Predict the structure.
Amino acid sequence: MTKLSLLILTLTFLLSCRTTIETLQTSDPNKIGVKANKFRGTIFKSTYPGDKLFIQPADTLTRFTPTKADIELAETILKTQIESLNKSHINQFGKGQYVDKNLNKYFRQYVGFINENGDSIIYLNFHWDKFTLIDRIKGYWDDRLKYTSDFSIVFDGGSRYWSVNVNLNSKKLFGLSVNGVA
């Protein structure tokens, strides 16, 4: 009976790591909206102008449009690997500010590209999306958190703005970059 209970618990855990994604076409033909039960974001199609991307070197990248299945896989990899990748907590001050503890509080931007080895990589750009009423009264919010907003980059801001890459072929998370604080 113990083995059966362990198997059920393991399957429940694995299924809970999976993220159900819904995609929707936006009014911008170069962007696809992404909705999940706890976050939202934008997929930038391969037709999105490369000169509007702030990924080095965007002009030499071979790009692809991530599918719903690609995003689901990327989110699963993110959830299972971010804690170990984020062990040093660079630019994150206090337990409440750790990016791995707040994944559902960010608006995502997804850009797909092929690396020099032919692997499919999704660059994930994160923007804080849980501004409180007090934050808003103080003037803190982000107008870029719309499905049709352009790709954006933020300097400073600490753990409210960060990025990471997901290799869909090797199923590895790499290149975590959390913004500094001015």
User: Anything to note?
Assistant: Residues 79 and 97 are 16 Å apart (CA to CA). The beta strands are 22-25, 31-35, 40-44, 62-64, 106-114, 120-128, 161-167, 172-178. The radius of gyration is 17 Å. The chain has a mean pLDDT of 82.
